[in-house]
């Protein structure tokens, strides 16, 4: 919760990128951008706070869970909410994942933009990163837009792995 960009202080993190034409580019990321990407972990804290103070974590539910040997925590509350509102839980998780992953992809790809020709690069707009994230999460993978930087590729690898879980949950909810 305490990770945030320091005011009036910004340092650069350099990363190498080798182009297909065999020339090296040094990409400079700012420390503020890295902290901004870590700050999205606050969404997990918000999720746990909402679930810990939900209807399924009150005193009666805790007593009932202790009698039957269940552990009453945020996972139990999420399972209860998933049983009652499956489409809402999966839909909101899908939308939240898509927007956060798209923003992080664009955040990691923008420093590379100033080194590449305009015709070669397509992730300069948020809509294109949104498109790339949705195509990756749904495991379609057209390949027309793909990340070029290492951090962008890592972000899309995480999106692909988490997308497999989300798509399987969507299939379960629909059926």
Radius of gyration: 20 Å
Given helix and strand content, the structural type is: mainly alpha
Run of helices and strands: EEHHHHHHH
Give the domain tally: 1
Strand content: 5-15%
Nearest-integer average pLDDT: 83
Tally of DSSP β-strands: 2
- By CATH reckoning, the class would read Mainly Alpha
* CATH fold-level name: Helix Hairpins
Low-confidence stretches: none
- Strand line-up of the largest beta sheet: 1-2
N- and C-termini, Cα separation: 38 Å
Biggest sheet layout: 2 strands, antiparallel
**Number of discrete helical segments:** 7
In which range does the helix fraction lie? 55-70%
CATH architecture: Orthogonal Bundle
Based on CA inertia axes, which overall geometry fits?
A: elongated
How would you describe this structure to a colleague?
α2 packs across α4, α5 crosses α6 and α5 packs antiparallel against α7. It is built from seven helices and two strands; from the N terminus they run ββααααααα. It has a single domain, classed as Orthogonal Bundle (Helix Hairpins). β1 and β2 form a beta hairpin. The protein is mainly alpha-helical and 175 residues long. Strands 1-2 form a two-stranded antiparallel ribbon.
List descriptors.
175 residues, mainly alpha, Helix Hairpins, 7 helices, 2 strands
Tell me briefly what this model is.
The chain is mainly α and 175 residues long. It is built from seven helices and two strands; from the N terminus they run E-E-H-H-H-H-H-H-H. The longest helix is centred in the middle third of the chain and has 28 residues, at 86-113.
SSE arrangement:
Elements: E1 12-18, E2 24-30, H1 31-39, H2 42-52, H3 59-68, H4 74-84, H5 86-113, H6 126-137, H7 150-174
Antiparallel strand pairs: 1-2
